[in-house]
Amino acid sequence: MHRDWILLTDKAAIAATSRNRRPRMTDVLSAVCMVSGLDRETICGPRGAPTVASTRQLAMLVMRRHCAARSTPEIGRFLSRDHTTVISGCRSAERRLAEDPEYQDLYEAVREYIGIEGAAA
């Protein structure tokens, strides 16, 4: 119960601030962690398990599409990756979004968590 209240408080804070500005990469990473159940260390770490990699790629795509500072080198530094890995990850995430309804739901959940409204970019 207490954990749920904290999550709702965090979500409300992120959504309230993002109404007036584009989300920060930290906001996106927090949202991806919350909806995927993975922690920051796992997403930014060296593991390449398929579930971790696809979740990391989703974070890259959301950052690339919706963050104010969204160059691939900057996203790469933030996630401890090379900028070419970010480019490849975004392409993989876009392909998966077009084909996988569960991945689409995860993407929409992240967008909702950080307060991005309207049609998917």
Notes on the structure:
The protein has helices spanning 2-18, 25-36, 40-44, 50-66, 72-78, 83-99, 101-113. It is mainly α. Helix 2 packs across helix 7 (101-113), helix 4 crosses helix 6 (83-99) and helix 5 crosses helix 6 (83-99). The protein is globular and about 30 Å long. The protein starts with a helix and ends in an 8-residue tail after the last helix. The mean pLDDT is 85.
Main pleated sheet: none
Computed CA radius of gyration, to the nearest angstrom: 14 Å
Report the end-to-end length measured between terminal Cα atoms. Answer: 34 Å
Beta-strand level of the residues, as a percent range?
under 5%
Contiguous helical run count: 7
Q: Provide mean pLDDT, rounded.
A: 85
Low-confidence stretches: none
Shape: globular
Secondary-structure element sequence?
HHHHHHH
Please give a quick description of this structure.
By secondary structure, the chain is mainly alpha-helical. The chain contains 7 helices and no strands.
Helix and strand layout, with pairings?
Layout (H helix, E strand, L loop, with lengths): L1 H17 L6 H12 L3 H5 L5 H17 L5 H7 L4 H17 L1 H13 L8
Q: What keywords describe this structure?
A:
single chain; 121 residues; 7 helices; 73% helix; mainly alpha
